[in-house]
Amino acid sequence: MTYLFNTPDQEREMLRTIGARSSEDLFEQIPSASRLDRPLDLAPPLGEMELERELRALASRNSGSGSRACFMGGGVYDHFIPAAVDEVAGRGEFYTAYTPYQAEASQGSLQAFFEFQSLICRLTGMDVCNASLYEGGTAVSEAAFMAMRVTDRHEKVVVLGSVHPEYRQVLRTYLSNLKCDLVVIPTPAGTADPEQVRAALDDKTACLIFQHPNFFGCLEDPDELTKLARSVGALSIVSFDPISLGLLRRPGDYGADVAVAEGQSLGIPMQYGGPFLGLFTCRNEFLRKMPGRLVGRTTDRLGRSCYTLTIQAREQHIRREKATSNICTNQGLLALRATVYLSLVGCHGLREVAELCCRKAHYAAERLSAVAGLSRAFADRPFFKEFVLSCASNDVEPVLACARHAGFDLGPSLSRFAQVGDGALQNGILVAVTEQRTRQEIDALAAALANERFALAGRPAAAGRQEPSASR
Amino acid sequence: MFPASDVPTQPLEELIPAAQLSPQAPSLPELSEPDVIRHFVNLSTLNMSVDTHFYPLGSCTMKYNPKRHERLARLPGIADLHPYQSEHDSQGMLQILFELQQMLGEISGLPAVSLQPAAGAQGEFTALLVAAAYFREKGEERTRVLFPASAHGTNPASAALAGFECVQLKVSKTGLVDLGELKTQLDERTAVFMITNPNTLGLFETQIIAIAQMLHDVGGLVYVDGANMNAILGITRPGDFGGDMMHFNVHKTFTGPHGAGGPGAGPVAVRDFLADYLPGPIVARDLAPAGQPTFRLTIPARSIGRMRTFFGNVGILLRGYMYIRTLGPAGLKAVSTNAVLNANYLMEKLKDVLPVPHGKRCMHEFVASACALQNDRGISAMDIAKRLLDYGFHAPTVYFPLVVPEAMMIEPTETESKETLDAFAEAIHRIVAEDPEFLHRAPHSTAVSRPDDVQAARKPILKWEPATS
């Protein structure tokens, strides 16, 4: 067998040592009534070469960003990943280790996570950062749970409709068996209406959750939102885009109590949705109520500086049902990737990435909204690297198909989140522009859509649902 | 380091309101690529890992991570696939995930599978919410979740997170669930009994069928924590011994690498009558009368909702898929057979110095106690664990489960040779003969030794700060 070592002779010797006649004997604890009396019904084994052939064939049936230029967004972006990130994360010393319980055997991971915490604190302007949560959606939910502990308010959580619909779905699931109301404030104008927010908050509210830049790519007014939360004694929780902090003011600058994020943009491949990286930062006073692992610096018995897991009295393996979270396995390797990414790009590189995204996104918004029948939704709202392209509702699929046909992926279409509700228009398409996109690609996309619009204009509405290739 | 902008560059203030712009670039260090590489490569050498050392960390199943998985996970169409890519353009990925659902259903004997949960603890939480939704729909108010004292800490933590009252049961002298105690606690308030089987003492719960019957008699559900599936692949299935729900740890049993703490993947499998409550998306297959079947994403009818964004920890699920495809049915059974053989062999080699209080035979791991050594010579489980690092072995899990004093939880896994196990046993024998004072100061050969954890927690330093002058 592929990954097993012992020879039949060794096996016999080991059984003799144990005092067992056969390896079957070793399973005698298992009642025969519950023993499986047949082989598992699974496909026969594959050698390495056959496996590779099959995986390559399966992979070729997917269209990744290598096959079409990716203008897709919605929380996952096609940012550039420097080779050095893969090189470091590909070291077996990192990826085949586990949680650094034995500090002396794990100083490499521990120091890397300490550096991760340090870099994310500097990036966000927040006091304290944990060593990672699963991803951006659960990070929001963990933040809400912490807010309930901190404020001792367990009845009400308020979230803006401009927060990623899937983050809100996760939050709803997490709260589903608790007696806590989840109040969603609609954002039909693309960003929060402060009056509506004010009206929704009261002295029972544990937290106000917003996203900035929000799900539609628009910038919220974070100073106003954190102030509103503070005025009722609720915590403000912001979900941010780490790349945006190359340009935008930091959560610590606008007074966020908790700042969380999806860290995928920091050197993590899109890989169909995960594993990603939940970033969790907050103010110092919540330290002992935080979820997740923390790495601290200390000294060893000879006075040498070193690192160790710390403040573990919050965690499930010590506190069990009183723990601040049930998280155990986190996203260590992805935190390492983010650490290497931030170390490589540095302050100027991150600023460059953010500027490039911002400028190219604005250029793309201008070019695409110049196409007849297309416009940028929420046109009066400033945005960062992503925007909603609006069109007649029965044109969404033709527009996506036309772009695809011309070699570009857009999306997701907002209709994908119709069942979540409370958001905004359904006839929109998210378009995200990273530093990897070029003017040439943007121009070609706009030209293809303009041609398609021209073709569509001459047809009855129903014809718009056909594949564009059929009309050429 | 990035190319100049190829689009018109107007002042940023025309794009973003000045009040939103940061006055300066983010305060990150500036380093050259060689600096970065040398720094992290040198850090990596301070780690012990499966690739470099025997790593018998009990309960964590630190088996070998096949290199073919790493290469294939980076393929174009896999690594660069956006989660919102259309179903039409993700058919290969959806087929992989559909087949993995089928495989896990077969391996568990619980046919309905959701691949959403990001790790084992989230799998537990998921299943408890599934149970809550199921009872809510039935109109039954069930508020309690039961688990033995030997359970992982995540069990009670997940139950509390899901809004249940936690009831911890004593463990019998044999290390198994105490049926008498269970009986006194069972009533119509019981929602779920969480049981790890094989349990955290490395023992199979021989009364499991009777236990499941007791739960079902009061209308409760049995949740199997699948942390220890490595012992029973192809030998017995949670669905066959009375489990109603379970989670897998793909990063353990199916060798998704542990990544210095994660990522994991914690798919859940449940009986048919709970399938409608699973979190989605789930992959469905449409068979075509002629030609290839097609795959699409669905949300179960009464779904508890999403547990996380997007599909799941696909990168880890994919490695699990590749592992199962590589081994096949006989290979998986051989994995468990060898894992159990290795554990029993090592237990036998160590029991003269590290006796095992519970059970004559073990499954894939065993929990020894350094209690006698502690009493006779003042050598603790921690001393042995630390000294093992000097001998070139990662330490076992220590001080868990809590029901064994001076616990050393040792899980060799199937991917270790007899030679390695012999060398490890010999190292332990040498260690326990060493001067206790010397052991209290161990390890002696590592870069650091015995960090001051008290200081770390009392005066936390959790980030780098520039020296203040």
Describe what you observe in this structure.
The complex is a heterodimer of chains A (472) and B (469). Chain A has helices at 8-18, 48-59, 83-89, 92-95, 107-124, 136-151, 165-174, 194-200, 222-231, 316-319, 332-369, 396-405, 439-457, and strands at 69-72, 128-129, 156-160, 181-185, 205-212, 235-240, 258-262, 278-282, 295-299, 305-309, 375-376, 386-390, 408-411, 428-432. In chain A, 35% of the residues lie in helices and 14% in strands. By secondary structure, chain A is α/β, with parallel strands linked by helices. Chain A folds into 2 domains: 69-77 and 346-471, Aspartate Aminotransferase, domain 1 (Alpha-Beta Complex), CATH 3.90.1150.10; 83-339, 3-Layer(aba) Sandwich (Aspartate Aminotransferase, domain 2), CATH 3.40.640.10. Chain B folds into 2 domains: 71-326, Aspartate Aminotransferase, domain 2, CATH 3.40.640; 329-444, Aspartate Aminotransferase, domain 1. Chain B is built from 14 helices and 12 strands. Chain B has helices at 33-44, 67-73, 91-108, 120-138, 154-161, 179-185, 208-217, 250-253, 314-350, 371-377, 381-390, 418-432, 436-440, 453-458, and strands at residues 112-114, 144-148, 165-169, 190-196, 221-226, 245-248, 268-270, 282-286, 294-298, 366-369, 397-398, 407-410. In chain B, the strands form 3 sheets. In chain B, strands 1-7-6-5-4-2-3 form a 7-stranded mixed beta sheet, with helices on both faces. At the A-B interface, helix 1, helix 2, helix 3, helix 4 and helix 5 of A face helix 1, helix 2, helix 3, helix 4 and helix 5 of B.
Features:
heterodimer; A: 472 residues; alpha/beta; Aspartate Aminotransferase, domain 1; Aspartate Aminotransferase, domain 2; 2 domains; 7-stranded mixed beta sheet; 14% strand; disordered C terminus; B: 469 residues; 3-stranded antiparallel beta sheet
